[in-house]
Amino acid sequence: MSHNIIGIIIVSHLFLFESMFFVKNILLSKKLKGSVRGKNKEASISIILFTVSIIIAITSILSEDINELFIPIPVLANDYLIFIGMFLLFLNLIISFLALVQMRDSWRVGIKENDKTDLINSGIFKMTRNPYFLSYIILFIAYIILVANVLILISSLVAFISIHKMIMKEEKYLEALHGAKYLDYKSNVPRYLLI
Dihedral of the CA atoms 45, 176, 121, 36 (nearest 10)? Predict the structure, then answer.
């Protein structure tokens, strides 16, 4: 499959993915009459690392010359893996959409210490405690497959580590906020999907 087609797919996916995120934030901010964004460094670092990964992915896929500078991974350049990568982008959209909708008014970007939100433990939250973060991990895996260079591999791994640290902080916050109810939920539902 050509670089141009993969580039169009990645850019189109990114537009849909980010549009869902911004629409949710805008609608909920209006409803709550205030920002849904927490002021913590983990959220800011994760957003920056996600943005870096997007820039690397788009520049790599749109320019084969630049991709050559980022050290291609030839073993990933086959049609079967490319279709898996595209399926993962589709899966990312489904999971992120379900997470955004089912989170209802408890959606926040980062931790907002003074907000008292409901513990969401139904729908997709019965399978994973962090479906929206899981969708990011799936996105990074798709980018690694579709872009197939060392720089996207490294930036995705760093972004995953950052997201994991943010999740660990959120878990402590949710435990403090919801107590035994959250601990019970935590013991029955995996953090990501199987782990």
Answer: -40
Q: How many of the other CB atoms lie within 10 Å of CB of 13? A: 20
Residue range 41-98, pLDDT digits in tens:
877 888 888 888 888 888 887 777 777 888 888 888 788 999 999 999 999 999 999 9
Q: Which of 135, 124, 103, 104 is nearest to 18 (CA)?
A: 135
Phi (first) and psi of residue 149, to 5 degrees? -140, 165
Can you tell me the distance from the alpha carbon of 34 to that of 46, in angstroms, rounded to the nearest whole number? 22
Please name the amino acid found at residue 145: I
- Angle (CA) 16-10-72 rounded to 5° is 155
Return the structure tokens found at 10: 């990645």
Structure tokens at 25: 């934030």
State in Å, rounded, how far the first CA of the chain is from the last one.
34
Q: How far apart are CA 162 and CA 164, in angstroms?
A: 5
